[in-house]
Amino acid sequence: MDEINELIEQRFKKLDDLRAAGIDPYNGRFAPDSKTADLKAKYETVTKDELEAKHTETFSVAGRIIAMRDFGKASFAHIQDASGKLQLYFRKDLLNERYALIKKLDIGDLIGVSGRLFRTRTDELTIEVSDFTLLGKSLRPLPEKWHGLKDIEIRYRQRYVDLIVNPQVKEIFAKRSAIIKAIRDFLESREYIEVETPMMHQIPGGAAAKPFKTHHNALDIDLYLRIAPELYLKRLLVGGYERVFEINKNFRNEGISTKHNPEFTMLEFYTAYKDYNFLMDFTEELFAYIANKALGTLKIPYGDIVIDLTPPWPRIPMLDSLKQKGMPDDVITDHEKAREWALSKKIALEKGASHTKILDEIFKELVEPELIQPTFITDYPVELSPLAKRKTDNPELVERFELFIAAREIANAFSELNDPIDQKNRFLNQVEAKKKGDEEAHWMDEDFVRALEYGMPPAAGEGIGIDRLVMLLTDSPSIRDVILFPQLKPEQ
Question: Cβ-count burial of 472 within 10 angstroms (0-12 exposed, 13-18 middle, 19+ buried)?
């Protein structure tokens, strides 16, 4: 730490020297005409002699100094911009009195340079600098002796440093952007309209989750950051839209882990006159499109396994998946036996957990960890899906699926409940569950019921966790690796 403080003091001294010389280290103006990657691509095969013949042609680039070597009357540096890096060559006899300014530069400084291209004795493409401008003085040293930034805590907390010194991190977020673009392209090509719905709700609905609470001073009412956009998107179906989607933030007041961040990005889309069977086919097609666009393959390396996204994917009813783990039929149908069976497997249960919640906990402990390749788990109990349509052949179950890949839920979808009477009764059941202590139970939303009373067409809707999808497609073990600024504990 003393060494770092000493380096910072040296940089502050250089800052003072620059200002004393009449140079403002933060007021430079510079308009680069080239990117480093473009120059390297264009002149990759151009020989030393050919470059020499073009000695009057100059280029300008801007970026951050990431390496410097001083040889007295000449200096070499590497400059890094958003596209890549390129070597620079400073000559005292070319820059004259301005060469003294090189001594005031440090790794991390932002500069703009102009000059001609040439090749060094080692054949490295280089700009011979004829002029340069200091654009921003770096007062803190970069972690130069690390092969990239290794400390996980610092990487997430100081993402700006992580992006500077770890090029592969930039690649992850560039890929994230490409994935989201592919989603939009896919949906828009199928006549889906992108919409925006409120982030602050008077009634948090659309998912089983605990919300964040805030207060609106002018109206003197409590509001909640949304846990899902579902109920507003379905209001749009009532209003006459038939295909809508939204990519935006949700907020859930839950724990932080490698799979959870309290602020996360979701895609939700709704299709009138379709059901969950359509959505399973649609989801296979969507994921294949995204993978091919972003990665060029359907076989995705993830950790020490390879995920194969080639359709079709298995479709297993939830209760059947429990039977495949050895659960007897009478345990599936009997509350007390289910509780005893769960405890015998050392599965923790909340006090007073309902029969359906017990089955869900057993599923999470025994089935979910083994769902590595893409798998649809279908046909959930009604209690777990208060917004989904009942199955006609078994009204205790609903037309719902969850998609699991690499032992994580990636998507949740169902045939939408459009019966206002059934919906109201299910809301009332959720209200009773909340009174008994279930903090994640749904609230009563009278306006949504009123909307259904005007008539909503039969429809299918789906939510896909963008962050988890990006984790999968970038081989990232933690959700924090794919969120630029993940939520962290306060810095001590």
Answer: buried
